[in-house]
Amino acid sequence: MEENIFILLGDHGQVQLVAGEEQAGIDLEKLYADYDIHRLGEPVSESAIAFGVNGRMSYVYDVHNSEQPSRLAELALQDERIALAAWLEKDWVVTQRPGSNQVFRFSPGGPLTDIYGQRWTLRGDGHIVGVKLDQQKKNISYTDYPE
């Protein structure tokens, strides 16, 4: 063992959870068809949005911060296959799930501490993002979205 080095890697591999590519893939260009979607290499317009996509999630960027993130999230929430939409409102991250009017808000700083030693202020139903709160200990733990 003194002469060997082991390197372990993970790729967050994805598995097919639903049958059929049409059901699994979410066409963001169709969902946001009423917006000016920025294309790589093209000049950025004043009203452009852009996508940052990976295997598990997507960011929809309001390129010029034209105060439309909540509207962009509303469109995402129309598709039941989207697990969660989140957007910034001043110092708060606001989250919501499709089919629900309930929101959960969190902001850095505050009386609650998570397992990473970060302090937070929370408002609303933590189940939306998989947050469990121990009010007595002022501790937060994560279930569905630990990252």
Task: Describe what this molecule looks like in 3D.
The structure is a single chain. It is built from three helices and nine strands; from the N terminus they run ααβββαββββββ. It is mainly beta. It has two domains: 18-67, no CATH class; 83-146, no CATH class. The strands form three sheets. The chain has a four-stranded antiparallel β-sheet with strand order 4-5-6-7. A three-stranded mixed β-sheet has the order 1-2-3, with no helix packed on it. Strand 6 and strand 7 form a beta hairpin. The longest helix has 8 residues, at 69-76. The chain is globular, with a radius of gyration of 19 Å. This is Type I phosphodiesterase/nucleotide pyrophosphatase. It comes from Caldalkalibacillus thermarum (strain TA2.A1).
Run of helices and strands? HHEEEHEEEEEE
Count every beta strand, where a strand is a DSSP E run of 2 or more residues: 9
Distance between the termini: 33 Å
The helix/strand class is mainly beta
Strand percentage, roughly?
Answer: 25-35%
Oligomer description: single chain
Question: How would you characterize the largest beta sheet?
Answer: 4 strands, antiparallel
Question: Roughly what is the average pLDDT, rounded to an integer?
Answer: 82
Low-confidence stretches: none
| Rg computed from alpha carbons, rounded to a whole number of angstroms | 19 Å
Overall outline = globular
Main-sheet strand order equals 4-5-6-7
Number of domains: 2
Helix percentage range: 10-25%
Our count of helices gives 3
Organism: Caldalkalibacillus thermarum (strain TA2.A1)
Protein name: Type I phosphodiesterase/nucleotide pyrophosphatase
